[in-house]
Amino acid sequence: xxxxxxxxxxxxxxxxxxxxxxxxxxxxxxxxxxxxxxxxxxxxxxxxxxxxxxxxxxxxxxxxxxxxxxxxxxxxxxxxxxxxxxxxxxxxxxxxxxxxxxxxxxxxxxxxxxxxxxxxxxxxxxxxxxxxxxxxxxxxxxxxxxxxxxxxxxxxxxxxxxxxxxxxxxxxxxxxxxxxxxxxxxxxxxxxxxxxxxxxxxxxxxxxxxxxxxxxxxxxxxxxxxxxxxxxxxxxxxxxxxxxxxxxxxxxxxxxxxxxxxxxxxxxxxxxxxxxxxxxxxxxxxxxxxxxxxxxxxxxxxxxxxxxxxxxxxxxxxxxxxxxxxxxxxxxxxxxxxxxxxxxxxxxxxxxxxxxxxxxxxxxxxxxxxxxxxxxxxxxxxxxxxxxxxxxxxxxxxxxxxxxxxxxxxxxxxxxxxxxxxxxxx
Length: 426
Description:
Number of domains: 2
Oligomer: single chain
CATH class of the largest domain: Alpha Beta
Mean pLDDT: 88
Largest sheet: 9 strands, mixed
CATH superfamily of the largest domain: tm_1862 like domain
């Protein structure tokens, strides 16, 4: 395979565009348009809200340490100079109240709730429960709501997981990253190899309906055999979902500085593609199927509904420092630093720093970018006439297939997803 073939979505712009749009990151936020003092949204954004699904994202910005590759909006205790998890909890509860007021009487019950970070499980189980209770009280939850938290395996115990399950959490995503000690070391992940497997077992014993492992491939010094060992660990874990992402060296991280100093090599594109193909092979053999470029599940029920809502352009409100939201074509984002975020709410106004109102064309283009990542593919009706004319060539090259009026990517197409999108769009 050529290097051109291996210029895949993991290394190129679409993965980063997804994160730019949806995730609280540590880099500079866009300027955007001013946000009203009280956070009021345009009337157009609320039109038909009651007939649509709603997701709630809760960003917990705390970590015990910063991993060398991480550029997310997270903070260690020393960086927060005494700000406690209780201070964060107070502010987050205030924003939940604000969100309910802004969305008004037509707000639907929440379909999914996702607690991410950071390390959400640095909060006591009782505090995570309070956040969920507040969402339940202010928005309500649909009968089969998906309630997820991320977790560092080192921060949970059987008792902690039991308390989360009693509070109503149904799904947990465990950040194992690798089963190989030297890979964890280069990533600066401070947890014991294999502890993710133990945590997955405890989660099942606690009654969690769905358990996921998060893995990263492509760390400097990680051999093909190392990655295979991490994949083989999945077979020993009672999980029904796996997220596997290639390592991206982000500017400003300690890993990027080590690469610049030639202490460690950049991830090799050819090897990343080979590891992705290995991932597909191993997980398929274990009964998983790919439903989004970087995600595999055992059956329809195990797919992450919260993330699917993002990829399908749904409505969500992001609670917490740096969190992004999208309601009815209006995207807005919060102040990054926890102190600034909390101060705004304490003063009685929105923590949102800026927003943008998306045009219909903006939303259409993003729909192409995101839905083509899904195994279900993109409805051909979303494409313009000119774009539709390009589909035949994509299919002829083995990058996509058309079935029942939808364009979906082949395995080779997944490796070249960014290129396929760029070819499609006007």
